[in-house]
């Protein structure tokens, strides 16, 4: 687990995760030529989590080259001198259900299916953390229901179709709407 790396890269990746999972905590990855990649993954079926890293001057700040690597980043900063900030970031997918369980502490979720969502399990896992956002996947058509442990603006159910979003925060026992968008 690299902790607070300070790396200047030239033409390649400052950090290349070729096998297994890794956490990168803090530090700075820099390139002043607008080439190279800050962090690149090519491992398979791994979790790569980047927290609090400062990226500057790359052709791509973060590139997830593997379709099976779960790449997540939180609290990172990206200078406006990066040509591309991130490619192929991981968004976990959950099927709609009467009770939805978000496994892990990701803050963006892609929801598939058509079953109404009445409860979101384990709100205590997200208490005191940033809000979570759910995005209706292509082909999805489900409704988030008021009641259970979900409180929506105006006390009205929210029917969602592909591209719609809902942002929620929790006090540890219930979920409260903080924003939404319709496609």
The CATH topology assignment of the largest domain is: Jelly Rolls
What is the radius of gyration? 18 Å
**Mean pLDDT over the residues:** 87
Query: Which blocks of ≥5 consecutive residues have pLDDT under 50?
Result: none
Helix content: under 10%
The largest sheet, given as strand count, sense and whether it forms a barrel, is: 6 strands, mixed
Number of helices: 0
Strand order of the main beta sheet, please? 12-14-16-20-21-18
Overall 3D shape? elongated
Number of domains: 2
CATH architecture of the largest domain: Sandwich
Model description:
- By secondary structure, the protein is mainly beta.
- The protein folds into 2 domains: 6-87, no CATH class; 93-181, Jelly Rolls (Sandwich), CATH 2.60.120.
- It has no helices and 21 strands.
- The strands form 6 sheets. It has a 6-stranded mixed β-sheet with strand order 12-14-16-20-21-18, with no helix packed on it.
- It starts with 5 loop residues before the first strand and ends with a strand.
List keywords for this structure.
183 residues; 2 domains; 46% strand; 21 strands; Jelly Rolls; 6-stranded mixed beta sheet; mainly beta
Summarize the model shown.
The protein is mainly beta and 183 residues long. 0% of the residues lie in helices and 46% in strands. It has two domains: 82 residues, no CATH class; 89 residues, Jelly Rolls (Sandwich), CATH 2.60.120.
């Amino acid at each position: 687990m690299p902790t607070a790396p300070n790396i200047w890269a030239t033409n390649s990746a400052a950090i290349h995760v070729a096998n297994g999972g890794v956490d990168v905590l803090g530090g700075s990855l820099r390139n002043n030529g607008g080439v190279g990649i800050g962090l690149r993954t090519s491992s398979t079926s791994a979790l790569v989590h980047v927290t609090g890293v400062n990226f500057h001057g790359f052709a791509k700040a973060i590139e997830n080259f593997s379709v099976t690597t779960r790449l997540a980043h939180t609290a990172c900063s990206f200078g406006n001198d990066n040509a591309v900030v991130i490619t192929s970031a991981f968004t976990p997918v959950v099927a709609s259900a009467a009770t939805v369980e978000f496994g892990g502490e990701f803050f963006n979720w892609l929801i598939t299916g058509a079953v109404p969502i009445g409860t979101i399990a384990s709100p205590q896992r997200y208490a005191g953390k940033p809000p979570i956002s759910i995005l209706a996947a292509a082909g999805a058509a489900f409704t988030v229901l008021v009641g259970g442990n979900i409180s929506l603006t105006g006390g009205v159910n929210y029917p969602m179709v592909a591209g719609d979003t809902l942002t929620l925060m929790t006090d540890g026992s219930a979920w409260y709407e903080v924003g939404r968008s319709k496609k």
